[in-house]
Amino acid sequence: MSYAEEREQNIARNRAILADLGINPLRPKCEPKENLRKKVAVKKRKSPLPESDVLEEPPKKASRIADDSNEQGGARRSSRLAGKTIDYKQEQDRGVPEPITFKRSQKLKVGQVKSKRTYDPHMYGHIPDVEVGTWWATREDCSNASVHGPWVSGIAPGPDGAYSIALSGGYDDDVDQGYAFTFTGSGGRDLKGTKTAPKNLRTAPQSSDQTFEDRNNAALQRSVDTQKPVRVIRGFKGKARSKYAPSEGYRYDGLYLVKKAWIEKGLNKGGFLVCKFAFVRMKGQEDIPVNDGGDDESDE
User: Fold this and answer.
1) 266: nearest Cα among 191, 202, 201, 211
2) Which residue positions in the chain have pLDDT lower than 50?
3) What is the DSSP code string of 97-136?
4) Which residues pair with 263 in a beta bridge?
5) In this structure, are residues 6 and 267 in contact, taking their beta carbons and an 8 Å threshold?
6) Is residue 171 within 8 Å of 184, Cβ to Cβ?
7) Closest Cα partner for 34 from 129, 135, 130?
8) N- or C-end of the chain: fewer Cβ atoms within 10 A?
9) pLDDT tens-digit series, residues 208-242
10) Which of 90, 94, 62 is nearest to 78 (CA)?
11) How many angstroms separate the CA atoms of 199 and 192, rounded?
């Protein structure tokens, strides 16, 4: 079976799983269109030069005043101090300087980020003051808003289930129908990279099975049991396959429940297993806007 055939087979299976969960009552009859953000034109700085082509001559430097008052071998005197009596021998107390080691200890370590958060992201449910539909330009901004803490990882694990996830592209056979979607777990990749691509990290091909022993996958599996709400942000990388992904940046699409967790053969050359999860959006939230470029998977 070719990659394309296997992908279509997996997608059909994922759609059937979502259909069994009954998401049609959640989807509005008329879906709102995405409001594209206008790009702000960068204003050019005006030239400080006059309109005339004739430039004024630059101001001449002040001539140095000769000081003949010093005796030969005495202290050198500045022209700006001419006529003033200065006691150069007077000791100035500038205080005891801090040790260099102390100054270095105050700097942020590699990987540390100075927090700009108002609220702790390690909570379930909505973050106060953050409305559904809020948009950010970067994952860092999402983290600072406490909606999804990790900058890179797609899952933020907690003791009673995941706090949040980032839905951004994902695996080729995942299905995003807006009000429900399938999501592939984490793990199974060699994060050390290879000799030729030492920094490929999470983009490395899958080289082992995913399991529910992985802390991120285990958290999502606990979400099925506890039914704790999970915050979901959608990223622009999913716009090619889903009309519900934003055209740019990242958007908070509200709270979802993880209704099912299972393991199946993944869409990879080695046939390694992956952890899969089915999410359904909670009722009573703002409708999700749609873009003009993604595929419509809702009625298929």
Assistant:
1) 211
2) 39-43, 49-55, 91, 94, 98-113, 200, 299-300
3) PPPHHHHHHTSPPTT------SS-S-SSSPPTT--TT-EE
4) 275
5) yes
6) yes
7) 135
8) N
9) 999 999 999 999 999 999 999 999 999 999 988 89
10) 62
11) 7
pLDDT in tens, 11-64: 999 999 999 987 777 788 889 999 876 544 444 555 554 444 444 555 565 555
Enter the DSSP assignment of 33. Answer: B
Give me the amino acid identity at 58.
P
- Give the residue carrying structure tokens 């990388």: 237
Dihedral pair phi/psi, residue 257, rounded to 5° = -115, 140
Which letter does DSSP use for residue 159 in this model?
T
- pTM value is 0.71
End-to-end Cα spacing for the chain: 23
CA 65 to chain centre: 61
Q: Percentage of residues in the chain with pLDDT exceeding 70?
A: 66
Residue with the two structure tokens 């960068």: 42
For the record, the structure tokens of 65 come out as 């005043």
- In this structure, the chain runs to a length of 300
Percentage helix, strand, coil for the chain under 3-state DSSP, each rounded to 5: 20, 15, 65
